[in-house]
Amino acid sequence: MSYPVVHSPVFRTISDTPYLRGPGVVVLSAPHVDLSGMRPFLIDFGMGFENYLDDPTDLPDCEKLIKVAGQLCYFSFGEKRTKNDQAQAYFDHIKEGGHGSVLEHANISLLLYGVDRATTHEIVRHRAGWGFSQVSQRFVDGKTLRFVERPEFQAHAGLHQLFKERIDRVADEYGRLADVLLTAQKDGLEVLSEEGRTALRKKVNQAARAALTNETEAPIIVTGNLRAVRHKVEMRANKGADLPIRQLAVNILECVRPLAPRIMADHEVESLSDGTVAVNAKFRKV
Ligand SMILES: Cc1cc2nc3c(=O)[nH]c(=O)nc-3n(C[C@H](O)[C@H](O)[C@H](O)COP(=O)(O)OP(=O)(O)OC[C@H]3O[C@@H](n4cnc5c(N)ncnc54)[C@H](O)[C@@H]3O)c2cc1C
C-alpha cells in the first residue's frame, strides 16, 4: 500500500530560480500493527479474550492500535466489549471525554516541502508530541535553493512579478555573498579561519544565508502522534491562521485522514467567503 501524497510542482523564473506555490505533504511512515502476538496473553485469562483478535470488522492500523490501547485500560476484551463495527462511537466517546492520551500511540511521519522558513517556524512551535528534522541552511549551499510564493502574490500580476524579481535578486546575492566569503576564507580571513571542508562550507553558508528572505523554502520531516496532529490541524487550519500554514494544515489533514478516518472524522473543511478554506473540529483539544 502506498501512503497519501499531496504533491507541489516546481516553477522557474526567467533566470531559472526555482519556486513553489503551495505546500507538498508526503506520508513517509505510519504504524504497521500486528496484534496476533497477544493471543497467548489473552488465552491465559481463560475468559475467551482471544476472540478479540477475530473481530470480523477490520480497522486501519492506526485505529486498531488506539482501540486496543484504550480497551486494555478496562480489560475490555470480553464479549460485551465495543466491537470494531462500533469503533466510530468508541473513538467519539474518547474524544468527547478528552481522553486523548490513547491517540498518542499512533505516530505518523511526514515530509513537508513547498513550505517557507516563516511557515516552518510556526510548525515547530508545536512541541508536545512532535519530532523535527529540517534542512540546514549552514550545511546546504545554494545549489538546492528554492523559494515559496505566498497566495496573495500568486493572485496579483504585479505582486507576482515583484516576487519573481525579488527571488532572482536574492538567489544572485546569496551566490555572490558566498563567493566573496569563500575567497575571503582562502585569503585567511580570521573569522572564517577554521580548517576542514565541512567547516569551511558551514562557515560560508551560515554567513551567506543572511541574504535569504523568509520566502526561502525549508523542507522538514516531522513525526507526530495523532493527538498532536489533531491539535496542529485545529490550531493551524483555523481561519485565524496565516494562509500558507492553513493550506499546509489542510493538506496534512487530507493525507492523515485516510490512515485514521474515524479519528479525524470530526474535522470539517469549510469554504470561506474569500475563496480560502478552514477546518473546524467538533472535538477540540482532546
Ligand atoms: C493563529 C495563531 C497566531 C499565533 N500568533 C503568535 C504570535 O504572535 N507570537 C507567538 O509567539 N506565538 C504565536 N502563535 C503560537 C502559539 O502561541 C503557540 O505557541 C503554538 O500555537 C503552539 O501551540 P501550543 O502552545 O498549544 O503547543 P503544543 O506544543 O502544540 O502543545 C499542545 C498542548 O500541550 C500542552 N503543553 C505543551 N507544552 C506544555 C508545557 N510546557 N506546559 C504545559 N502544557 C503544555 C498544552 O495544553 C498545549 O496546548 C500563534 C498561533 C496561532 C495558531
What can be said about the biggest beta sheet?
5 strands, antiparallel
What's the total helix number? 9
Q: Count the beta strands.
A: 10
Low-confidence stretches: none
What is the succession of H and E elements?
EEEEHHHEHEEHHHEHHEE
The secondary-structure class comes to alpha+beta
Distance between the termini: 29 Å
- The whole-number mean of residue pLDDT values reads 94
Strand portion: 15-25%
Helical residues, percent: 25-40%
Strand order of the largest sheet: 1-4-5-8-6
Bound molecules: flavin-adenine dinucleotide
Q: What shape does the CA trace take?
A: elongated
Radius of gyration: 24 Å
What does the model show?
- The structure is a single chain.
- With 286 residues, this protein is an alpha+beta fold.
- The chain has nine helices and ten strands.
- It has helices at residues 39-43, 61-73, 87-97, 117-123, 151-154, 157-186, 197-208, 226-236, 243-256, and strands spanning 5-6, 10-12, 18-20, 24-29, 107-113, 130-134, 147-148, 220-225, 267-271, 277-281.
- The protein is elongated, with a radius of gyration of 24 Å.
- The structure holds flavin-adenine dinucleotide.
- Residues 125-128, 231, 235-236, 240-241 line the site of flavin-adenine dinucleotide.
